[in-house]
Design goal:
- The complex is a heterodimer of chains A (195) and B (118).
- Chain A folds into two domains: 69 residues, no CATH class; 99 residues, no CATH class.
- Helices cover 51% and strands 8% of the residues of chain A.
- The radius of gyration of chain A is 21 Å and the shape is extended.
- Chain A is mostly helical.
- By secondary structure, chain B is an all-alpha fold.
- Chain B has one domain.
- Chain B contains three helices and no strands.
- The radius of gyration of chain B is 19 Å and the shape is elongated.
- The chains are: A mainly alpha (195), B mainly alpha (118).
- Chains A and B meet through α1, α3, β1, α4 and β2 of A and α1, α2 and α3 of B.
């Protein structure tokens, strides 16, 4: 779904993922960190040993968890090679607040339209010239905006603009998208969001 | 205290169920696949969020909380991804004909309607 061009400074990371970015030392570190993260997540969800505290069962559970974490790490390194870019956690918190608030607006908006006997819809398309570079940033933007009020990305036009299907084209859709984009760009450390 | 938390659970989970119902009503009433995708993704996001929020007092902190919130985030991620993939798969041929003349995001689309709703 996403083009694998990560906006990164080191030229070695601009290549596609198929030729394996697993050789270098930073990649090994990234693999270790991701594997630990996946295994921790698995422990959290599966909670091995809470029902039947017998040692062989627990060991078998942990083997399954380790295998699952290894597989997840392998897939994640192929699909999303490690990038140097850090996240800004203050901006992430602001974005989370915005996201939760807009999720409520979106849910209430769609529920209101669904329950209204007159079914007030005014669907149409909108081309949004997205400024986030192709790659994870744009993929995240597409995912986030598909949950925002009244917008659903349906594809990328020839000139690189994202085409949105809108529930109601009379709403200020583009302004909302621009705000989402600016907030998301700050999370990724792109200053004002305009590249 | 426990009664207040139980009431909170009942209220939040009921609200969540109402939003799931809204998503289903939208799925049945909205005129085409793309508008139906709107109904499902948005309403279910909020509905599941409210159900998770309501269940938080019934589990043990912190691991039960993290697990519940992780379920919500995973459902969000898969909903957002699958929603886009489905939208791409079912988009009608006129999806790409709405060129904005300039690269200004504020130009309203003057395109023909994608779908004829009543």
């Amino acid at each position: 779904m996403h083009a694998n061009q990560l906006p990164s400074r080191s030229p070695g990371r601009l290549k596609f993922t198929d030729d394996g970015a697993t050789a270098a030392a930073p990649s090994a570190l990234a693999a270790l960190a991701r594997g630990a993260g996946f295994f921790g997540f698995w422990l959290l969800l599966a909670r091995p040993g809470t029902d039947a505290p017998s040692t062989p069962d627990l060991a078998a559970d942990l083997v399954v968890g380790l295998l699952a974490a290894a597989a997840a790490t392998w897939v994640s390194l192929r699909l999303l090679p490690p990038a140097r870019k850090g996240l800004h956690f203050g901006a992430l918190a602001r974005f989370a607040v915005h996201f939760i608030r807009q999720s409520m607006v979106a849910g209430v908006d769609v529920a209101r339209r669904a329950f209204d006997p007159r079914l007030p819809l005014n669907p149409g398309y909108l081309a949004y010239p997205v400024r986030l570079a192709p790659g994870t940033g744009r993929a995240a933007f597409g995912a986030v905006t598909s949950l925002m009020p009244g917008t659903l990305p349906v594809g990328t036009a020839a000139d690189g603009a994202l085409i949105y299907h809108c529930l109601d084209v009379d709403q200020p859709v583009a302004a909302g998208l621009a705000r989402d984009e600016a907030l998301l760009a700050r999370v990724r450390g792109n200053g004002g969001g305009c590249r | 205290m426990s009664l207040a938390l139980d009431l909170f659970t009942i209220v939040a989970v009921t609200l969540g169920a109402i939003f799931f119902l809204a998503g289903t009503v939208g799925l049945l009433r909205f005129p085409d696949t793309l508008t139906r995708l709107h109904a499902l993704t948005k309403a279910d996001n909020l509905g599941l969020g409210l159900v998770v929020l309501g269940l938080l007092p019934q589990t043990t902190a912190p691991f039960g909380w993290i697990g519940l919130i992780a379920v919500w985030l995973l459902a969000l991620l898969s909903g957002a991804t699958v929603g886009q993939l489905l939208a791409e798969a079912v988009r009608p041929p006129e999806w790409d004909q709405t060129r904005t003349p300039a690269a200004s995001p504020d130009v309203p689309p003057n395109a023909p309607e994608a779908s004829s709703h009543d």
